[in-house]
Amino acid sequence: MLNCENYDKPVSFFYNQSGKNITSDWSRRDYVVVALGLTVCLIVILSNLLVIAAIIKNRRLHFPIYYLLGNMAAADLFAGVSYLNLLFHTGPYTIGLTQHQWFVRGALVDMSLTASVANLLAVAVERHQTIFTMQLHSTMTKRRVVLLILGIWAVAVFMGLVPTMGWNCVCDLTTCSTTVPLYQRSFLVFWAVLNLLMFFFMVAMYARIFVYVRRRCRGRPSLDADQLNYETVISLMKTVAIVLGAFVFCWTPGLVILLLDGLDCKSCQVLQYEKYCLALAECNSLVNPIIYSYRDEDMRKTFKQILCFLCRKTCDQQGEPSTIELSRNGDHTKSKRSSIRRPLFSSSSATHG
């Protein structure tokens, strides 16, 4: 019969059992890690807020693919918050955690990963549907997109709570992992294999799409009535593929470490590489806004407009002279307030409204 008296044990007890040592003393390295981590987390949160704001603001981006990319930004934003919480509950802080606090810390990270993977899978299916019909955007209704996004987060919450609901080693210390001392090794194997299979499936799907596109573009005339739409479809496809590639690159090392730990590989020295893999995974949430800025012209322009608006508003609040505009008829100058109230995206709205 399993011994469940361990429910009253502190987190440090499980760390000592697994061989993952923690100390109450702060080293210079701990301070550097926390400082760098805080900086990255704040940049992740602000940059992904910018992506979400751009998608809300620009009506050219009000399509299913951009809603899903916006949800991807929301997952990255959530990842930034979960990593921020992790920084304040790691290192010497870990000793003072209760089991409940420790499981919440792990659940937040698990949820962010699951939300990102599920969202990337939804994007892959959406792109597969549109590319094979050579459409720029899916015919999916907004209601279905909302339900899909809600389903993604429901799956993320469930997967994050699985260890808390019983798939842990609190009652059986012999099954505890090394990198995540309160998780069972079998859960790490399940978690790593599931995500790696999802990576493989999505990469295979995009490879099939690119093969199809390459075959279709053979023999196309250089000047075609649908050439502009065709090039836009391919450009957006490449952007999404780069996002997937960056995600796979950043998360695969960490998942491999978890898989090796779950398989109880004694000679793999998983603790030596664990923190580097976690840092690489954290950087992924910072990469996507950079990809959007580089690849998507509409989103890049909207970023600039939002940032210029915020800078102008900040300058006005600090007492900068108001902007003076002269009318064509030589009328009196307009006030600063009327200048601020002008539509920021008037040219865009007039073109696409």
UniProtKB/TrEMBL annotation:
Region described as Disordered: spans on this chain: 322-353
Low complexity bias (residue ranges): 341-353
A GO cellular component entry from the record:
plasma membrane
What compartments host this protein?
Cell membrane
Keyword list (alphabetical) reads: Cell membrane, G-protein coupled receptor, Glycoprotein, Membrane, Receptor, Transducer, Transmembrane, Transmembrane helix
Which Gene Ontology terms cover its molecular function? G protein-coupled receptor activity
Q: Which Gene3D superfamilies match?
A: Rhodopsin 7-helix transmembrane proteins (1.20.1070.10)
**Main subcellular localisation:** membrane
Task: Give the transmembrane ranges.
Answer: 31-56, 68-90, 102-125, 145-167, 187-211, 240-260
Extract the PROSITE patterns matched here. G_PROTEIN_RECEP_F1_1 (PS00237), G_PROTEIN_RECEP_F1_2 (PS50262)
- Domain G-protein coupled receptors family 1 profile span(s) in chain numbering: 47-292
UniProt topology in membrane = Multi-pass membrane protein
| Any Pfam family the entry gives | 7tm_1
InterPro entries in the cross-refs: GPCR_Rhodpsn, GPCR_Rhodpsn_7TM, Melcrt_ACTH_rcpt
Similarity comment: family membership: Belongs to the G-protein coupled receptor 1 family.
Q: What is this protein called?
A: G-protein coupled receptors family 1 profile domain-containing protein
The organism of origin for this protein: Coilia grayii
